[in-house]
Design brief:
Layout: E1 2-6, H1 10-21, E2 25-29, H2 33-40, H3 51-60, E3 64-67, H4 70-76, E4 79-82, H5 97-107, E5 113-118, H6 126-137, E6 143-148, H7 158-163, E7 168-171, H8 175-185, E8 192-195, H9 197-228, H10 232-240, H11 261-275, H12 280-290, H13 292-303, E9 311-315, H14 330-341, E10 346-350, H15 356-361, E11 367-368, H16 372-376, E12 381-384, H17 389-392, H18 396-402, E13 407-410, H19 417-421, E14 426-428, H20 441-455
Parallel strand pairs: 1-2, 1-4, 2-3, 4-5, 5-6, 7-8, 9-10, 9-12, 10-11, 12-13, 13-14
The structure holds 1,4-dihydronicotinamide adenine dinucleotide and uridine-5'-diphosphate-glucuronic acid.
Length: 460
């Protein structure tokens, strides 16, 4: 089939390359001419496993083409996927202008039988509005079908999620539209859920909101474990072994970030308020998530007196491992808040996916280094922010020899705290038993004394 995709973000590119792999001819269009130029030269502007190889293979074979002009694809493609961004601000209002702009451009050129598939995450009722808007612009000879097929892929494993989705949701209000879309997605080994467009739209927001609620539950439970002398990792394992609960998204730490979960949760809360069915649980999950960087800072303050005179290393910056995406990354709030509360603190950082974009997202006072060792050298404490596997391979003696004082605040419970604590390193996890988090009063006293001496010019 001749297909087209509007929007060359992670979702658009993966959808385009995925359907090319399934034997279709796909045109991918983006208004960002720089990005289109890069893609035409075989460069994928995302750190996404397997995506570049898939794109180059099909681009070379002529099954996948990139352009910034929707004219040809609107005129030729039978099915057009809309995968433009739908960002939402703090007020939860989703910006649909990119979607309307894409639709309006398409409307100018479409004719014949055309199916529009909305992949972007949108407020409930958007597909209805979109259909009405397009119909008002279309020539009479055009037969239009509109489906809502929300996307559930995760960054860092988008290609795998495309080919092995947990489910495919086809929201359409008539059998013919459903049949057209089912012909495409039926090639994937996944249950297909047929529903109406509004339910498909709400299901997408509900799925992300549910994950947000689960993670905030995990984080609040971890805080309670700390206060009551219980061990959260053990609790998470116990909860996770119950198939009714499931083990995923119970990881406590610095909370959820990224370009979608936070914004979709905010969008759902706004939509629900407007609809008169408030989502108080989701709103509370968002609030709980926002407290986590400060919680971590309090731990640092307990471990280290005089933080304003200290050097603290951040290990990992991206919102999760496997990506260089800094959108709503907890590292940014953490760094901003640390610098605000402790002016004079020296912040160093290392992320295996370091990029210019990463540097731009952080306060300028954060010094980025090219290795964990360089960021940790002379540090009085380190906070593990993103659980890149390489941090788990740093040995206790390396922490001890590189750092001024080997105090590790493990914000993702990714390090082997028991082994490190037995080897002269202080490793404090999230929601861990006090037995696993050694008494810090000595460390705090000692480092406080040293800072005071330094301040008075008497040396350590
Ligand atoms: N990133 C992810 O892992 C997932 C994202 N989603 C949803 O999918 C949608 C797209 O997400 P991303 O790929 O991350 O977005 P993105 O923001 O990274 O990329 C969107 C692309 O659309 C382009 N664009 C904007 N207006 C356009 C127009 N009028 N015509 C053509 N192109 C246009 C932009 O230049 C940009 O390259 C969003 O609604 C998002 O919530 C859903 C599931 C997963
Ligand atoms: O709508 C979207 O864009 C996507 O949003 C998320 O995918 P993604 O943003 O790639 O990120 P996740 O892997 O879900 O992680 C989100 C955040 O939760 C955090 N997290 C994850 C798991 C956990 O146990 N604890 C935890 O704090 C991660 O560190 C990260 O900051 C959803 O998982 C996808 O299904 C959805 O399609």
């Amino acid at each position: 089939m001749r297909l087209a995709v509007m929007g060359a973000g992670i979702v658009g590119l993966t959808t385009a390359a995925g359907f090319a792999e399934l034997g279709h001819t796909v045109d991918c269009c983006d208004i960002d001419t720089g990005k289109v130029g890069q893609l035409a030269r075989g460069l994928v502007p995302y750190r996404e496993p397997d995506l570049e190889a898939l794109i180059s293979r099909h681009a070379a074979a002529g099954h996948l083409r990139f352009s910034s002009d929707p004219e040809r694809l609107a005129a030729e493609a039978e099915v057009i996927f809309l995968a433009v961004g739908t960002p939402a601000g703090d007020d939860g209002l989703m910006r649909l202008e990119p979607l309307w702009a894409a639709v309006d451009r398409l409307g100018e050129w479409m004719g014949g039988r055309r199916t529009i598939v909305v992949k972007s995450t949108v407020p409930v009722g958007t597909a209805d509005r979109l259909e009405a808007r397009l119909r008002a612009r279309l020539p009479e000879r055009c037969e239009l079908f509109v489906a809502s097929v929300p996307e559930f892929m995760r960054e860092g494993q988008a290609v795998r999620d495309f080919f092995e989705p947990a489910r495919v949701v086809i929201g359409s209000d008539d059998a013919e539209t459903f049949a057209i879309v089912e012909r495409l997605y039926g090639a994937l080994p996944a249950p297909i859920v047929a529903t109406d467009r509004r339910s498909a739209e709400l299901a997408k927001l509900a799925a992300n909101a549910h994950l947000a609620v689960k993670m905030s539950f995990a984080n609040e439970m971890a805080a309670l474990a700390e206060q009551t002398g219980a061990d959260y990792p053990a609790i998470a394992r116990i909860l996770g072994l119950d198939p009714r609960i499931g083990s995923e998204y119970l990881g406590a730490g610095l909370g959820f970030g990224g370009s979608c979960l936070p914004k979709d949760a905010r969008a759902l809360v706004r939509l629900a308020d407007e609809a008169g069915a408030p989502q108080t649980l989701v709103a509370a999950a968002i609030r709980a998530n926002a407290t986590l960087p400060l919680r971590m800072i309090r731990k640092l303050e307990a471990a280290l007196s005089w933080p304003s005179r200290r050097k603290v290393a951040l290990l990992g910056l991206a919102f999760k491992p496997g990506t260089d995406d800094m959108r709503e990354a907890p590292s940014v709030r953490l760094a901003q808040e640390l610098l605000r509360r402790h002016p004079g603190i020296s912040l160093t950082a290392y992320d295996p996916a370091a990029s210019q974009a990463m540097k731009r997202a952080l306060p300028s006072a954060v010094r980025l280094y090219g290795s964990a060792e360089a960021a940790l050298r002379g540090a009085d404490a380190a906070i593990l922010v993103t659980e890149w596997p390489e941090f788990g391979r740093i040995r206790a003696e390396e922490f001890r020899s590189w750092m001024n004082r080997p105090i590790l605040l493990d914000g993702r419970n990714a390090l082997d705290a028991d082994a490190l604590n037995g080897s002269g390193v202080v490793c404090i996890g999230v929601g861990r038993l006090p037995a696993n988090s050694p008494d810090l009063s000595g460390a705090a006293d000692e480092s406080g004394r040293r800072a005071q001496n330094e301040e008075q010019g008497t040396g350590a």
